[in-house]
Amino acid sequence: PISIIDYFLNFEAPKSLVTQLKSQNLATKVEIGPWSHSYGSIFFIDVALTEKGYNNTNQVILQIAKHLNSLKANNLPKKFYHRVRKTKELDFRFAESQSFFDEASGLAKSMWIYPEESIVRSMSTLDKQFDPVTLQQFINQLDINKAHITIVGPNVPVNAKTKQWGVEYSIGTFTDQQIQEWSKAKGHNNTSLADNPYLPENFDQLYSSCDQEPCKIDDSIITYWHLQDKSYKKPKAALNINLKNKTIVTNAKEAVLAKVLNTYLSSLLAYKSDFSSLLTEAGFSAQINVGKKG
Q1: Cα-flanking dihedrals φ and ψ of residue 77, to 5°?
Q2: CA 241 to CA 248: how far, in whole Å?
Q3: How confident is the model over 98-154, as pLDDT tens digits?
């Protein structure tokens, strides 16, 4: 259930929580998900506020309350379960290879938190059945009125210090009027889910004629080489493009401008749209770097 709720709140649909906070210039980044420990689990919503959002924290909390209330009022359709199961199967079948130390550390931590018999099978059997009753029980526990809300930033009124590090803080409560406003807040019924044509329907990897030696591929724009890696069966492709420019290192001004351009282009690549969200969900990632040659 947590996986389905986590996916629903994180998915950047037009009326989703993440999209609403960003479009209203209240936040630059939103992270949502569960944090598990031996004594239980905590569901967190971490919002990186803009200046506008920091000055209007009640509006940010109100947006969160609207989406949680909408989630309770509108049962999540089964299609979210199918999408989560497909993405989890993709991650499980084609997981990144990691070192023996990291593998052992991860298993040791999991065995400390969870029952031993559930560690290995949990990844493959956790989402085999759709249980709307249990899902709704989990959703009903997400009550903004029972939340622990922490605001970190400049000019926050403080009245105490921690003994260990001397960090200043204050503890307070919200007004009854604010709590009632959150309880009655109504949001959009945003349980629509666009199809993702980039998620595979068949997980069998097909080998091409390039599985023994590199293949040269030409088109009207670019020429590149392709070699399929069969040693670890992950259907992954990487495209590296080098743009060489002799003016990059001619003087300090050009070097700084190159860094600025690199930062701008990186922000464009990181921007989440309806299209890029579907690509990210299917495992696509991109990055751009500037070096001495361009």
Answers
A1: -70, 165
A2: 16
A3: 677 877 787 777 777 666 665 654 444 445 677 888 888 888 888 888 888 888 888
Q: Quote the DSSP letter at residue 67.
A: H
C-alpha torsion 106→138→32→276, nearest 10 = 100
The pTM (predicted TM-score) of the whole model is 0.66
Q: Residues for the chain: how many in total?
A: 294
Paired tokens of 118: 């559930």
In the prediction, which pLDDT does 126 show? 47
pLDDT at 60 over 80: yes
Cβ atoms < 10 Å from Cβ of 191: 16
Check if the beta carbon of residue 79 is closer than 8 Å to that of residue 4. Answer: no
Q: How far apart are CA 110 and CA 102, in angstroms?
A: 12
Cross-strand pairs, 27: 49
* CB of 90 closer than 8 Å to CB of 236: no
Alpha helix positions (H), the chain: 2-10, 17-23, 51-55, 57-73, 78-93, 100-113, 122-125, 132-140, 176-184, 252-270, 274-281
Q: Where are the alpha helices (DSSP H) in 47-131?
A: 51-55, 57-73, 78-93, 100-113, 122-125
Alpha carbon distance 237, 193 (integer Å): 27
Closest CA to 30 of 75, 73, 63, 70: 63
